[in-house]
Amino acid sequence: MPTDREYLKYQQAGALATTGASDAKAEVGKAHSRVRTFAIGSAANAATNTSETPLGTVAFKARLKSCKLTNNTNVAANASNYAVVSIYKRASDGSAQTLLGSWNTHASAQGALTERVPASLSLVSNADVVIAAGSLLSYGVGKVGTGQAIDQFAPLDFELEEV
Prior knowledge:
Distance between the termini: 12 Å
Mean pLDDT: 86
CATH class of the largest domain: Mainly Beta
C-alpha cells in the first residue's frame, strides 16, 4: 500500500506531466531526494579487513537511489591485491543485515578508484530497496592479498528518496 508521501508524489508527477515535462516522475523523485554523507573510519586504511562499522541512521523511510565513494588518492585495479567496499542496512534493533551495494577494486570488477572522482557503487539487483525509518547504515571493507588502502575519512554519499 502506498504511503502518504507516495500519494503526494503521484499527484505532483501528474500535475507536472500536464506541463509537458519529459519525465515528471523522475523530476518529482529528485525533489524528494536527500544526500546523506558519512565518512569511512581510519581502520579501513589498513591492508586488513574492516568489519562492519556503523555509519548512522536514516530518519525517514527512503529508497536508496545511489551511493558514491570518493577516495582522496588513486587506487589501482589489481587481480591479486584488491579491496571490496560494501554498504549495508540493518533494522533499528540492529538485526537483519542486508547488503545494499559495493565497489570492488579487482581488475575484472569495477576496478580502479580515481583520485577525488566519485565512484558509484553497484547497488544490489533490486535497486528499489526500501530503507525503513530508523534503520542503521553501515559499511565494511574486505581485503584480498595485500589489499588496497581506502582513505581515512573517504566520504560515502547516500542519495535517499523519501517514500
